[in-house]
Specification:
Number of strands: 19
Bound molecules: manganese (II) ion
Low-confidence stretches: none
Structural class: alpha/beta
Number of helices: 15
Shape: elongated
Largest sheet: 6 strands, antiparallel, barrel
Strand content: 15-25%
Length: 498
């Protein structure tokens, strides 16, 4: 489900013919070496493709248009090795529609003090040429990433790698299709939003289906298929009967297995990558999809509860952006539930009724079957676990009526002090930056929701860059947040994004 294209990034070096063929030969040689070494670094998640040096208006325009047309190209990396008069770039940049990275580097790391002469300076003048180029990109108001540093520096390579993931998120955002099973929960404000505006801004297609249409797909799943999946569950997860009759327990689990298969077939057949459900509108479904949704999220589907299509699309987006990441720690929908307000141990217990993605789990995962406190269905089976420790980001995309705002909060995930044996749901526990009180005050002032799209595998810069590319407001809550400045950020946003 998480198959994305084998994306590539084009490496385009700018120059001019003022300094002769010998200089241009070296420019090409240098940029080829940079591309080769970047690809060999093992740090970049996607391949960089070398392109012939850009020296004329015609070639620049043609190259950018070819990049637009090439389905595998997810972005262009530009670098001015020598001086490249920037008026040559105007038409190409005007027509270019994909993510743009300006890598401000130079081939040599050190000034060659003993041998440096005017020829060397003319050939290696990115400090000069990249300023000319950056000026025109800024004047044209084009959103782009700028990364400064030597191309062999691992930190620079890590930043290019991170940007590549953002770029793929920008490209893939317009392919996200969310299936709404029933409507949003009645009377709830924060899960609502303008779906037309979401398609205009993010490219998301958000469609509703009557719940019984998908319930039919679930009912059509054979007993043999269901039982095979139940076997897989029983071999993979711990079974916590907690006094229930084993045969009855298994029947409850089988309901979720049938839902998982039926939902996945329906999603695949109709081409959706994310979905929402609503516990109050389940039609012919026997249980609220719990375990089934957890497994679908693990496979790469986005999910939002109570009709929360914004969270569903964001979870899907983050799963795409982190695809294939080495040592990935997971991405899930989460919900702020309960605080620990003991001094020095502050944090927010994250959970949901059922639907937390097991990709964030640490340690054993078990299946429990317990009543829901809401709704009118059978006791649903669900996966229960606790989550990994370490840094993560929680995001909330809210519709403020005249615009979308993405709130991005740095959080530190921790183990809770003691086990919670009576809690029948998966959990995470985190302390928001810069501390529970300031971080939460800022979140409330920004209008952040209780549902979040959370990941350990992206940083705030990546999500903020994605938001900038979508043309929406992004606000950050992190170790540097103080309320006075944060309120100014919100005021600035309300003026700029009106
Ligand atoms: Mn909820």
């Amino acid at each position: 489900m998480l198959n994305t294209k084998s994306y590539k990034f084009w490496f385009c070096t700018g120059s001019q013919d003022l300094y002769g063929d010998e200089c241009l030969r070296k420019v090409a040689e240098h940029s080829k070496i940079i591309v080769e070494r970047l690809n060999a670094s093992g740090i970049l998640p996607y391949e960089v493709v070398w392109k012939p040096t850009l020296i004329t208006n015609e070639l620049i325009r043609r190259t950018f248009n070819e990049a637009n047309m090439d389905e595998e190209c997810a972005g262009v990396i530009t670098w001015m090795h020598t001086f490249s008069p920037a008026k040559s770039w105007i038409l190409g940049l005007q027509e270019y529609r994909k993510p743009l990275l300006h890598l401000h580097t130079q081939f040599n790391e050190e000034i060659p003090y003993d041998t440096i002469d005017m020829d060397f300076m003319n050939e290696n003048q990115a400090a000069h040429g990249d300023r000319e180029y950056a000026h025109i990109v800024t004047r044209m108001g084009i959103e782009r990433k700028v990364i400064v540093g030597h191309w062999t520096d691992a930190e620079v390579q890590e930043r290019i790698a991170a940007w590549m993931r953002t770029a793929v998120g920008i490209i893939e955002s317009s392919h996200i299709r969310v299936m709404r099973v029933a409507d949003n929960m009645r009377n709830v404000a924060v899960t609502e939003g303008d779906k037309v505006e979401a398609q205009l801004k993010f490219g998301w297609e958000i469609d509703a289906y009557p719940v019984n249409e998908i319930a039919e797909s679930v009912a059509a799943v054979s007993e043999a298929d269901t039982n095979a999946l139940v076997e897989e569950y029983y071999s993979k997860y711990e079974i916590l009967l907690e006094g229930r009759d084993p045969a009855e327990f298994r029947r409850h689990v089988a309901v979720q297995a049938q839902i998982e298969i039926g939902f996945e077939r329906f999603l695949e057949e109709k081409g959706y990558h994310a979905l929402v459900t609503h516990f109050g509108d389940l039609g012919a479904l026997k249980q609220l999809p719990g375990l089934a949704i957890q497994r679908l999220m693990e496979k790469g589907y986005g999910f939002g509860a109570e009709g929360d299509w914004k969270v569903a699309a964001m979870v899907r987006l983050m799963k795409i952006m982190t695809v294939g990441k080495k040592d990935a720690k997971g991405t899930s929908m989460l919900e702020d539930y309960t605080y620990n307000m003991v001094k020095g141990k502050e944090g927010i217990l994250q959970a949901h009724m059922l639907e937390i993605c097991p990709s964030i789990a640490e340690g054993p995962i078990s299946i429990k079957c317990q009543p829901l406190s809401m709704g009118d269905r059978e006791d649903p089976a669900r996966l229960v676990f606790t989550s990994k420790t370490g840094a993560g980001i929680a995001t909330s995309l809210v519709d403020l009526g005249n615009r979308f705002r993405l709130i991005i909060q740095d959080v530190e995930c921790k183990k809770v002090e003691k086990p919670m044996p009576k809690l029948p749901v998966a959990t995470d526990f985190w302390t928001p930056q810069p501390d529970l009180y300031t971080g939460t005050e800022a979140w409330l002032l920004a209008g952040g929701a209780h549902h979040t799209a959370f990941t350990y595998d992206l940083n705030a810069e990546q999500m903020g860059d994605w938001a900038n590319a979508m043309g929406i407001e992004a606000v950050y809550i992190d170790e540097n947040t103080n309320i006075r400045d944060f309120k100014k950020d919100l005021m600035l946003g309300s003026v700029y994004y009106r």
